[in-house]
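Regression report. Comparing outputs from two consecutive submissions.

Submission 1:
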Amino acid sequence: MLRFTSVLFGVVLLLALPAYGQDFQKGVEAYNSGDYATALREWRPLAEQGHAGAQYNLRFMYDEGFGMAQDDAEAARWFRLAAEQGDAEAQFYLGLSYANGEGVPQNYAEAVRFIGWLAQPP
């Protein structure tokens, strides 16, 4: 049983290796110091693996054009991925994207869908 557990642990560790080198906090520190290339290098793999914080931060980089060409469509894509995981800020900004037609077709129904929760009583 111990041998099986050791093998299982090794397999899990190997599966985790792609994310091992990426460090969300390292990306935050790089971003805050203006090193957008490092922030992108740290956050993109995490975002692609479903890290909502990294997705949200990539959205901001694409939205503002920090370290890359400004791209509303790519920003909206990352907004959506973070919003679908329940990130309230990402939902709000995705709703604004729909309201303003930035990176997505203007669609007020979608805007309300993503930011309508603001109008709901607690």
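Submission 2:
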Amino acid sequence: MKKYKAVQLMREGKKITHRHFSPEEWMTIQDGKILLEDGVECSLPEFWKWRTDASWNDGYSLYKL
């Protein structure tokens, strides 16, 4: 799925993974911040700051336990 759809689903509380992530990694948006599976929180601009190449424009999927 594309980045814009992944962000929309995360804002709805869904956990999302990416093809660059390991199988246990996920992210969501909570209280306006990115929340990662290990409890790390960061702002959206901070998270996307280093993820600028085209490979981050798609490749997202819903995280399945």
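Expected: both submissions complete independently.
Actual: both completed, but the second showed a warning that disappeared on reload.
Relevant detail on submission 2: The chain has one domain: 3-62.
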